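Re: beginner question about structure tokens

> Can someone show what the tokenized structure looks like for a real chain? I only ever see the sequence side.

Sure, here's an example I had lying around. Input first:
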Amino acid sequence: MEEPARLGHAMTDIQTFLNTLHDRYQPLDKGQLASYIPELTKADPNWFAISVVTVDGRVFQVGNVDQKFTIQSISKIFVYGMALADHGRDRVLKKVGVEPTGDPFNSLIRLDEDSKRPDNPMINAGAIATTSLIQGPTPTDRLNRLLDMFSRYIGHQVYVDVPTFLSERATGHRNRAIAHLMLNFGMIDEHIEDVLDLYCQQCALLVTCQDLATMAATLANRGLNPLTGEQAVDSEHIRDILSVMYTCGMYNFAGEWAFRVGIPAKSGVSGGILAVVPNQAGIAVFSPLLDKNGNSVRGLRVFENLSQTYGFHLFDLSMGRCRFREGLAGAIADDASPRPAIAP
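And the corresponding structure tokens:
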């Protein structure tokens, strides 16, 4: 991956810097729309939004922040948290591991040879196993529990985009093959179609860039939504959630992300990326043009620049080098309008 453009070393407030990044990367037209889910090909490649939500409830954003899109694989991390809440760490670990993998996220063969578990909950096999753990007497009850959980993270009701759900259901033959393989090894039960429907529904939830940033800020704030004050997940599960995000959240780019950006993150093939700066903020970027790994091209550039400028790599944080609060200190605006003038 090429080095991100250098935007200067002077410390600026967050809103001004977000505007600068948006202007810099809006013309970037590299990448492709996701095509294996037909509904995703309808996205406008020019959509581009950046949003920051702090743990004290401030919001900074720019671009198409109100544009709705489907959450896709970003849902996996939150459903994993729900499975931890329903069953506890030990039971979940019996069904899905926590090892990174260099194989594609939809690989048919990623089951551990000894335990028969999927490697981690961020690949499709692991996510399907995780979804199968969600409790409820009927499919409707389980879906409603998922919707309620996502609503706590976001701060308002969420809905399934039915065309995308039907599109994923009609084309999800690899996921059916994965599910049958796990059924063979006893990792999920025989209600395969119910599990796959719920999995497709969770991926088809409609969100905005600010929604993703709020979800990330909730994780940064020990599970407490900073905009509503509602506890979305018990704080005892945050460490496990963030650990899996850090090691497995960015498809086959997870290792390089940890090296270059250095904070827990999760991406999805609709073009969203959310990341957590622990105890400080949640950050999200939405732009649907993807690289070969399925990550947003503009999103990766934005996060690399933010990390380099403000020092929020985890090892910068641990050594007291983070300058993020300095950037927040002078910021006043809580949205991107009117935008400050950008110096040439």
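Each token stands for a local structural state, so reading them left to right follows the chain. The radius of gyration is 19 Å.
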